[in-house]
Amino acid sequence: MPPQAPVGSGRDRYPALPQPYPTFPLALHDPVVLTRQICDVESVSGNEKDLADVVEGALSALPHLEVVRDGDAVVARTTLGRDRRVVVAGHLDTVPVAANLPVRVVGEGAHAELWGRGTVDMKGGVAIMLALAAELAVPSYDVTWVFYDHEEVASDLNGLGRLARTRPELLAGDFAVVGEPSNAGIEGGCNGTLRADVVLTGVAAHSARAWMGDNAIHHAGEVLSRLAAYEPQTVDVDGLAYRESLNAVGVSGGIAGNVIPDRAVVTVNYRFAPSRSVEDAAAHVREVLHGFDVTVTDAAPGARPGLDAPAAADFAKTVLERTGGEPAPSTAGPTSPGSASWACPP
Ligand SMILES: [Zn+2]
Questions:
Q1: Cis preceding linkage at 334, omega within 30
Q2: Percent of the chain with pLDDT over 90
Q3: What are the TM regions of this chain, as residue ranges (predicted)?
Q4: The CATH homologous superfamily of the domain defined by 31-181
Q5: 44 CA distance to ligand 1 centroid (A)?
Q6: Is the model's pLDDT at 23 over the cut of 90?
Q7: CA–centroid distance, residue 146 to ligand 1 (Å)
């Protein structure tokens, strides 16, 4: 569908675009127009090809960038021979459109805003990446710009994960930033997560003769009391405060309304600071639940923010100067190869 006329005003801030305005060439030196252009190239996950084509075309025209296409991911690199390289990544796809394309301008003057699918998550950020990729012909670090597909869907489809598995050399660098809507703030690292089953056993009996049995569900009471009384720590890691938590997230047991149960399970989830290993985390849960049968069923380590690395420290300082935003820990888990665990320097 050709782009339709944007509605609304705000034209004293954002000049009127030709009606309909072209999606190519991209307005690489005007991030606002650029945001509208790339938002109006619909790119719901799985349908990123058109936008990847536009991005690849625009970046390939820049002599200071070496451009590689992998599926619907586009990687563009400076090759200045600098001793350090920064990787900046952002996803091209969006969640499904909900009658919110083409982008509209809402409000006027200084209050004008762009509304439409992808403006926030994360084509506004992609537009800034594209504008910077065009502008920074001679950056002080070599820069790798990664525009990738399939972020908004199952993590095994994630384009950044695919690149990490199949072409890791394209992602090599000393420091990486993965863009997401964060209001221009840095979210560094993330907590790890561990799930464990606490298995409680007893002796089955008919409830009419309950004294013949030993109720496994009642043994869960002590487990729940310890969890309720548990005081989670806040752990400082590289200057960021990570809030931990240990919670029951499931309780099961009982087979019939007239049977004293001989088995019950309390499932717990521990979110732990990235300074702890999975082994440390498991040992901690076992210590808190000492005397009970604890089986770890699933765990993923956290990711340190790495803000003590020189490039990261420079970045955090610059962000603080420009936006007043202090780095904060990410509250997301280590669930996606496109998220926090990759965002940290190696
Ligand atoms: Zn996103």
A1: no
A2: 66
A3: none
A4: Zn peptidases (3.40.630.10)
A5: 12
A6: no
A7: 14
Cα of 339 from ligand 1 centre, angstroms = 9
Is 31-181's fold the same as 191-300's? no
pLDDT tens-digit readout, 229-243: 999 999 999 888 999
Ligand 1 center–CA 264 separation, angstroms: 40
Kindly report, residue by residue over 195-214, the tens digit of the pLDDT. Answer: 999 999 999 999 999 999 99
- Give the integer Cα–Cα distance in Å for 108 and 7: 12
Mind telling me the catalytic residues?
A: 93, 151
pTM: 0.71
Q: Where are the domains of the chain?
A: 31-181, 191-300
Fold for 191-300, please state it: Alpha-Beta Plaits (3.30.70)
- Collapsing DSSP to helix, strand or coil, 46 comes out as coil
